[in-house]
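User: For my dataset I need records formatted as: sequence, then structure tokens, nothing else. Please produce one.
Assistant:
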Amino acid sequence: MYDTEEYEYEAILQRMLDDVPDDMDKRPGSVIYDALAPAAAEMAQMYINMSAGDDMYYADTASGEYLSRRTAEFGVNREPATFAVRQATFQDNAGNAMDVPIGSRFFIEDINYVVTEKITTGLFKIRSETAGAIGNAPFGSMLAVDYVNNLSTAVLGELLVPGEDEESDELLRERYFTEINEQPFGGNVADYRQKIRALDGVASVKITPVWQGGGTVKATIMATNYIPPSTALVAQVQEIVDPIPFAGQGIGLAPIGHTVTITGVSWLTINISSTLTLAPETTIGQVQQDIEDAIDAYFLALRQTWETDAPLIIRVAQIEARILTVSGVVDVMGTQLNGSTENLSLTVDQVPQKGTVTLSE
């Protein structure tokens, strides 16, 4: 609103000078000029700030706290960072599985974890004390923060419920417009999608209504970081949405009369082979990792669109196009996906995972 030329410093100063009688000295360096110039600069900065303030008022241009406040007016609140839930095993000095006290703490790579629940002897659920995706990454031996009698080894293992970073501006904005425009109500598809996607550890969800007749709903989920969910996460979402012992009774988020089954996507491993023409003095070993990284990025992009685009199709041309972006690759031909030169179609509940990548000249 205020970013046109008439609100720039030079234009403001000239208008101020035009209001001064012409029989007075208005040249640069004169008393009048030097008195008006700082005021014109302040006014120009004021208009810049006012223009920026306009951007902070609208949801499509706001950011940070201003976007959070805008979306909250419509009941859409920024999702906070969540804590990763992991699995850990503990052994005593004789190498036998042993129990540790609930609440005992351990650390690995400067991240602390606290024991929250026993699964079985020597196997426990532990939760990161640091919120966010940082708690998803470490694996291996942990050290005890507090002494645990007779404990020999503590090993951090499977990721059960991924931790998530605080919702970004772009994701919040997208969710805001989706929730405003989709009009969720009383157990319709939009209602299920929004409520399940908002649960900890869930990145995407696909709803299949009346999948086994009237009143039945299947919700297929993908975990944070766009990977298949663990069985623990599937069970957790099932408990929240429609607990199995009380299916259809409206005990969870699902309306009375709706029986909801929560499932997760599964990996389809894709082995890839291609014949390359390389630049002079370039070897397969020099481009192998870059090509694998490019394929990983393609598969991740597909997984991010799974909610709206499933069933996914892995296209040979897309893989070859990405291989050609790698420095040192002149040409690529004969690409095969799991032994076939055709595009590979996945089922609705499958997402791609890179297998072996075999390159030849």
